[in-house]
Design brief:
CATH topology of the domain at 31-174: Rossmann fold
Order of helices and strands: HHEEEHEHEHHEHEEHEHEHEHHHHH
CATH superfamily of the domain at 31-174: Leucine Dehydrogenase, chain A, domain 1
Helix content: 40-55%
Number of strands: 11
Radius of gyration: 21 Å
Bound molecules: nicotinamide-adenine-dinucleotide
Structural class: alpha/beta
Distance between the termini: 38 Å
Strand order of the largest sheet: 8-7-6-9-10-11
CATH architecture of the domain at 31-174: 3-Layer(aba) Sandwich
Number of helices: 15
Length: 413
């Protein structure tokens, strides 16, 4: 994963002509800590879990990134995701660097009290770095809702004062922001609208969505009234398909009642969703699902990446050859971190905004970022993914160069 992200960064560095000093700085994480968390289980035994936190870059501000609880969490994955966050916060021009953390654990095997102990133990292990001015965690896989509430409570207990700005994605009652729960889907939709002409998506353009969770549902609920036709969606246990456009309200009720979109309409196999004919394909579930082989079989005009890393670098080449444009994850799904930033600002100032103010600020930021990516794409005649990396790298490069470049130290400028 780390290799994949770096490959795209190196391509951007070539396009921009970035000085090797900048690449040297960006080649290494600022700090990566590993810890062992001894957890008392409900049966009285102790289980030791591996935990990590990587603060990749703080040249643009305090580091920002989620904490995930998943059995596959490793130090490499955490570093790659922290690097990814560095690029994402730069694309949407937030005054943040990038970070990520995680615990290698299967939360489905934990009781609620065991999950609480893991959440609090994580904060105790990394409490020194967690601070509103240094490193600001957020939810990620299997760390939503009450996990963040426990973490917020633990950091306050350790530092002996409320620290709402030290963690975002909090429940509203603990200083969370309105609009945070819908931010990723909202941001993806705002971004799509700003790119409608570039992607040549006319009235009635058809959309197929892989994954029908939190982000995808919000996105679909905004896209349908705007004139797009959601013709297929899938989740981990089924798919729904209607060429005339799915009834999203009825589909939502079916998913809430049965736990899946399967059995709602049509007889599409979930594995066939990615390669079905549609105008826009929206991967919103897993990373790496569009590899070289799948890329060759795609029948869409464009891709909007709500999931992190759904397209592999090898598939990028095939997409370029086939003229299928991908709106990259570091832009398309940045609405979540953009509203996390608004949460942090509200926590720091104590001034809490109504939902329409959050919507206005999110729209403004996503539109500005999308327009900046488009401008890079047009200036360098490159695709949107390369353009997003060029934009992010340019901003990081400016921050790194602000403390002096080789040219400056050699007295040449
Ligand atoms: P979620 O857990 O609510 O939804 C994920 C969906 O994917 C579920 O419907 C699940 O059934 C489905 N899924 C899992 N395996 C599948 C498979 N093999 N085929 C089809 N569907 C499958 O998650 P979410 O919050 O909506 O996030 C979705 C994606 O967006 C993830 O990749 C996440 O990393 C990314 N993302 C989310 C946020 C956010 O704030 N929610 C921010 C940035 C990126």
């Amino acid at each position: 994963m780390f290799h994949d992200v770096k490959e795209r960064l190196e391509r951007a560095a070539e396009i921009l002509g970035v000085h090797p000093d900048v690449m040297e700085v960006l080649g290494y994480p600022r700090e990566t800590l590993a810890a062992s968390l001894p957890i008392r289980l409900d049966d009285g035994s102790i289980k030791v879990l591996k935990a990590f936190r990587c603060r990749y870059s703080e040249v643009r501000g305090p580091t920002k990134g989620g904490i995930r609880f998943h059995p596959s969490v490793s130090i490499d994955e955490v570093m790659a995701l922290a690097f990814w966050m560095t690029m994402k916060t730069a694309v949407v021009d937030l005054p943040y660097g990038g970070a990520k953390g995680g615990v290698a654990v299967d939360t489905k095997k934990l009781s609620p009290t065991e999950l609480e102990r893991v959440s609090r133990a994580y904060i105790r292990a990394f409490a020194e770095m967690i601070d509103e001015h240094r490193d600001i965690p957020a939810p990620d896989m299997y760390t939503g809702g009450i996990v963040i509430a426990w973490m917020t409570d633990e950091i306050a207990a350790l530092k002996r004062r409320p620290m709402p700005g030290a963690i975002t994605g909090k429940p509203l009652q603990l200083g969370g922001s309105l609009g945070r729960d819908t931010a990723t889907g909202d941001g993806a939709f705002i971004c799509l609208e700003a790119l409608r002409d570039r992607l040549q998506l006319g009235e009635g353009a058809t959309i197929a969505i892989q994954g029908y969770g939190n982000a995808a549902r919000v996105f679909a609920d905004r896209a349908a009234p705007a004139g797009y036709r959601i013709i297929a969606v899938s989740d981990s246990s089924g798919a729904a398909h209607d060429p005339a456009g799915l009834d999203l309200q009825a589909l939502g009720c079916h998913k809430d009642e049965t736990g899946s979109v399967g059995g709602f309409a049509g007889d599409l196999h979930p594995d066939d969703l990615l390669t079905m004919p549609c105008d826009l394909l929206v991967p919103a579930a897993l990373d790496g699902v569009i590899d070289e082989a799948v890329a060759r079989d795609l029948q869409c005009k464009a891709i909007l990446e709500i999931a992190n890393g759904p397209v592999t670098p090898a598939a990028d080449t095939v997409l370029k050859e086939r003229g299928i444009e991908a709106v990259p994850d570091i832009l398309a799904n940045a609405g979540g971190v953009a509203v996390s930033y608004l949460e942090w600002v509200q926590n720091k100032t104590g001034d809490y905004w109504p939902a329409d103010e959050i919507e206005r600020r999110l729209t403004q930021r996503m539109q500005a970022a999308t327009e900046a990516v488009l401008a890079e794409a047009e200036q360098h005649e490159i695709d949107l993914r390369d353009a997003a990396y060029v934009l992010a790298l340019g901003r990081l490069c400016d921050a790194i160069s602000a403390t002096g470049t080789q040219t400056y130290y050699n007295g040449e400028g």
